[in-house]
Specification:
It comes from Variovorax ureilyticus. The structure is a single chain. The protein is α/β, with parallel strands linked by helices. The chain folds into two domains: about 1-195, Rossmann fold (3-Layer(aba) Sandwich), CATH 3.40.50.1170; about 220-325, Rossmann fold, CATH 3.40.50.40. The protein is about 25% helix and about 25% strand. The chain has a nine-stranded mixed sheet with strand order 1-5-2-6-7-8-9-12-13, with helices on both faces. A three-stranded parallel sheet has the order 14-15-16, with helices on both faces. The chain has a two-stranded antiparallel ribbon with strand order 3-4. A hairpin with a 2-residue loop joins strand 12 (about 190) and strand 13 (about 195). Helix 2 (about 70-85) packs across helix 3 (about 100-115), helix 3 (about 100-115) packs parallel to helix 8 and helix 6 (about 235-245) packs parallel to helix 7. The radius of gyration is 20 Å and the shape is globular. The relative contact order is 0.11.
Length: about 325
């Protein structure tokens, strides 16, 4: 942990989790052949000047490639966020994160914390050792967002764009502006150290708090994501049901179906999903389309996830199952 006091009265806590932003490559010109999660978060802040009236504090939560994100790290992140958000002089939190699962972590934290202060995830598409790394500017922009009056909720900042946790998706494999907010559009832009708001910041919308259940849970409900496609089969679903019937200790509890179009499924996969639902497995449909939401139709026997992507529907279902545990 390192605190960078510059005469400020408000603190911005920067939690490091690893990712490309903390990556190193053997050659400065190599933007893809790097190892993620090599540079500590305190070092990432080196040379970044805090806005006037702000003090930076760095804390390392994990040091991983975000493709390997786990429930255990999410639990720790939620706990550390809750701890720091409760401090009166903390304006908000920045989380340095890998791009691969950033949208999942953002949605998880918004669902669990629904904070009135800003929690800003930021990232990089180039490693810290690149000739022109994008991480330092993204971190600077994230700090600016936290320090902006009225900012709240969990958001992501990348390439000068602010995305809400419910909307953000990684849509490109390589370019610096790899994220998009779909039909909703971005919340704001960061332009030369100032935030240009486009719409309202996310509002807390938790009907039932799940924080205590999440941080005390010994395990995360096993939920698999399966994709509907041409010639899809129900074989994998049936295998998961059979595993559950055998009493496997880590048997599946839920299935998210990445459906085509407006929540449609290949007939063989749909039939297997109905068999799974009859066996007590929670089944949810989410569209695999990048934009749009599932518009419900009368007579549907498998519920839908509305506008949630498959990975976010998985998180929502897991939190629902955690909440229902005795």
């Amino acid at each position: 942990m390192r605190e960078n006091i510059q005469g400020g009265t408000r603190r911005v806590v920067v939690l490091g989790t690893g990712g490309t932003i903390a990556g190193r490559a053997s050659q400065a010109g190599d933007n893809i052949g790097y190892t993620a999660g090599q540079v500590g978060v305190a070092d990432l802040l080196g040379g970044i000047e805090a806005p006037e009236g702000v003090a930076l504090l760095a804390e390392q939560v994990s040091q991983i490639d975000s493709k390997d994100m786990s429930f255990a790290i999410w639990q720790k992140l939620a706990q550390r966020c809750a701890y720091w958000l409760a401090e009166a002089d903390v304006a908000g939190i920045v989380i340095t994160h890998g791009t691969d699962t950033l949208e999942e972590t953002a949605f998880f934290l918004q669902s669990v914390l629904a904070p009135s202060k800003p929690v800003v995830l930021t990232c990089a598409m180039r490693p810290a050792t690149a000739l022109a790394p994008d991480g330092p500017q993204n971190v600077r922009d994230a700090i600016v967002v936290v320090a902006t009056p009225g900012a709240r909720g969990v958001v992501a900042v990348c390439a000068g764009t602010v995305h809400g946790a419910a909307d953000v998706q990684k849509v490109h494999t390589y370019r610096l502006d790899a994220f998009d907010s779909g039909d909703a559009g971005p919340l704001a832009y960061v332009e030369e150290g100032a935030v240009l708001a486009l719409r309202n910041w996310p509002e807390p919308q938790l009907a039932t708090p799940v924080f205590d259940r999440v941080v005390s849970a010994a395990s995360w409900p096993r939920i698999e994501i399966l994709v509907s496609h041409a010639e899809a089969r129900g074989t994998i679903v049936d295998a998961l049901v059979a595993e559950r019937k055998r009493g496997a200790p880590d048997a599946v509890q839920g299935i998210v179906l990445a459906a085509t179009g407006n929540g449609t499924l290949h007939h063989a996969l749909e039939a297997a999903a109905l068999r799974a639902q009859a066996e007590g497995i929670a089944v949810v449909r989410a569209t695999r389309c990048l934009k749009g939401r599932i518009l419900p139709k009368t007579g549907e026997t498998l519920r839908d996830a509305g506008g949630l992507t498959p990975v976010k529907a998985r998180i929502a279902l897991a939190l629902e199952l955690l909440s229902s545990r005795a």
